[in-house]
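Async update (no meeting this week)

Hi team, since we skipped the sync, here's where things stand on the single-chain job. The sequence we agreed to prioritize is pasted below, unchanged from the tracker. I ran it this morning and attached the output directly underneath so nobody has to dig for it. Comments welcome in thread, and please keep replies under the output.
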Amino acid sequence: MMSRRNAIPDFVYPNRCGFCADTIKNDKMICGRCFKTVECLSDNTLPVFSSSLHFDGLFVSCRYDGLVKSGILRLKSSRAFNTARYICTDLADRIERAYDSIGKIDLITCIPMSEKQKKSREYNQAEVIARRLSHELGVPFVDGLIVKADTSFHQHDQSVRLRRELADLVYMANADARCAQMVKGKTVLVCDDIVTTGSTLSKCAKVLKDEGASKVYAAALAG
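Output:
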């Protein structure tokens, strides 16, 4: 009888590949076909960004195309958390390999959603990524260090110039003084799902540095 009860959740909510949504075994995050196709970037193949951006370094695992793009879009729309779990394994390895040059990360946070967005979607995919990296790296996750104003526009629909301007308007430090105390003198990792122009991560890095963070590194599943 117990075995039947345990089987019910697997039947109703089967485990699915994060990239193609095929049903997979419960201990897997990706199907065999996607495993052969999804590729991570080589260590020396990272997007090139302007030195004017405020983060001290960037970690990216994949190029945003093909199955990776499909997986991240599913992560955004349908709780395909296996996408984040799978790519974060590589992302955590990249960060750990950099510890000799950058030092260890003290705490992890994420790009916030506005209250309106989070109420509509019920979860923040950047938070899913940050919590997974917290688990992989053994580093505390702290939510709410940065807040986002409610807006009627989407960053990805805007030009590079407008993204930078809008990021300055919508992201700000949490007014709670305890948040600044948590950040002061710390090395912080701020996470998002995709990096394109780097404007959002740069603005959030500036917010954290203005609150006293000594260094801020950025991480994204794809770029």
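Quick observations from my side:
Strands lie at 57-62, 107-110, 146-148, 171-173, 187-194, 215-222.
Residues 55 and 216 are 5 Å apart (CA to CA).
Reply here if anything looks off.
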